[in-house]
Design goal:
It contains three helices and six strands; from the N terminus they run βαβββααββ. The longest helix is centred in the middle third of the chain and has 10 residues. The chain starts with a strand and ends in a 5-residue tail after the last strand.
Length: 126
């Protein structure tokens, strides 16, 4: 299954249904289910997300989501996201791609596996 490695706290924000868009510098034509892999690195400003009461797991698949759209972010869309949640979407994402995620599920047990760059494949039945 297609898998995306995301640094913390963003991976946890996604699987806990706080974050509905993942931002990338590259466009994807892929639509469908992906696994959410929490990478080993964390954002240097991770403390600004303390009020979300998240638990952080590193180096593991922690959930899944479905990519339903890929939107080139312009100023209007960026402003809309900032109004939705300034803490999560407050950065300038203009000229990046917002991968719209739906059907998000958090796994009860993490699957520890080494991550990779880009969209990569993982066999859940390994």
């Amino acid at each position: 299954m297609k898998t995306l490695t995301i640094k913390q706290p963003y991976a946890s924000l996604i699987v806990n249904n706080h974050k509905k868009y993942e931002f990338r510098s590259w466009k994807t034509n892929y639509r469908g289910k992906i696994l959410i892999h929490a990478g080993l690195s964390k954002d240097k400003n991770i403390n600004k997300f303390d009020n979300y009461n998240l638990d952080y797991i590193y180096g593991a698949i922690i959930g899944e989501a479905e990519i339903i759209d890929c939107i080139l972010v312009d100023e209007v869309f960026n402003n809309k996201l900032c109004k939705e949640d300034k803490i999560i979407y407050g950065s300038d994402h203009i000229d990046e791609y917002a991968w719209k995620l739906e059907n998000i599920k958090k796994y009860d047990k993490p699957i520890y596996v080494k991550g990779k760059l880009g969209l990569w494949n993982y066999d859940l039945h390994e």
